[in-house]
Specification:
Elements lengths: L3 E7 L2 E9 L4 E3 L2 E2 H4 L3 H13 L6 E8 L3 H19 L4 H7 L29
Parallel strand pairs: 3-5
Antiparallel strand pairs: 1-2, 2-5, 3-4
Helix pairs in contact: 2-3
Length: 128
């Protein structure tokens, strides 16, 4: 089996995922994913699609992450892994979709407006 490559995005994070047959090794930016994602929540998030389909020891994953913070990168990686698993076996799409792993979260940070301290916050109004 040749490498399956997919892309996952979340906020400003981009994950390029390469999936191979293997023993379950996951490397992110040439580090083990447990070294890269120090938070247990982020580590769990990355493993969710693999654990759902019981294939965590069947494939090796190499990911290149850029942009965003750790949570956004973990969610982008989860989407990329889910898309790669669907490319391998189309029948897994329903199970992944039911859990919400196949949908890109479209929420982005709203831009700051001129004359305001933040996107929606206003300076205090003074009547006199």
């Amino acid at each position: 089996m040749e490498a399956i490559n997919t892309i996952g995005r979340r906020k400003s994070a981009v994950a390029r995922v390469y999936l191979f047959e293997g023993k379950g090794k996951i490397s992110v930016n040439n580090k083990d994913y447990k070294e890269y994602f120090l938070s247990k929540t982020d580590q769990y998030m990355v493993m969710q699609p693999l654990n759902l389909l019981n294939v965590s020891d069947k494939y090796d994953i190499r990911a290149i992450l850029s942009g965003g913070g750790s949570r956004g990168q973990a969610e982008a990686l989860r989407l990329g892994i889910s898309r790669a698993l669907v490319k391998i076996n189309e029948e897994d799409k329903k199970a992944l979709k039911d859990e919400g792993f196949m949908k890109r979260d479209p929420r982005e940070v709203e831009r700051k407006k001129p004359g305001q301290p933040k996107a929606r916050k206003r300076f205090q109004f003074s009547k006199r």
